[in-house]
């Protein structure tokens, strides 16, 4: 099995990654939203905006 980030063989301790650095890099990508699938549908954007405003307890923009 190869590391999904650098394609080197995986390490049993960090599987599916080869090292702690690749595992950490993958985590950073998740936390920054790099793996998110963008939506250009107006309904999705409006719904996300409404949910955010509700969470922040503010009126809709």
From TrEMBL:
It comes from Pontibaca salina. It comes from the Bacteria. One of its GO terms (biological process) is regulation of DNA-templated transcription. Keywords: Metal-binding, Zinc. InterPro entries: DNA_gyrase_inhibitor_YacG, Znf_NHR/GATA. The keyword Secreted does not apply. The lineage of its organism: Bacteria, Pseudomonadati, Pseudomonadota, Alphaproteobacteria, Rhodobacterales. GO terms for molecular function: zinc ion binding. This is DNA gyrase inhibitor YacG. The keyword Zinc applies.
């Amino acid at each position: 099995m190869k590391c999904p980030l650098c394609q080197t063989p995986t390490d049993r301790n960090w599987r599916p990654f080869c090292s702690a650095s690749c595992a950490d890099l993958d985590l950073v990508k998740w936390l920054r939203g790099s793996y998110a699938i963008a939506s250009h549908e107006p309904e999705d954007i409006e719904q996300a905006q409404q949910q955010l405003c509700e969470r922040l307890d503010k009126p809709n923009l």
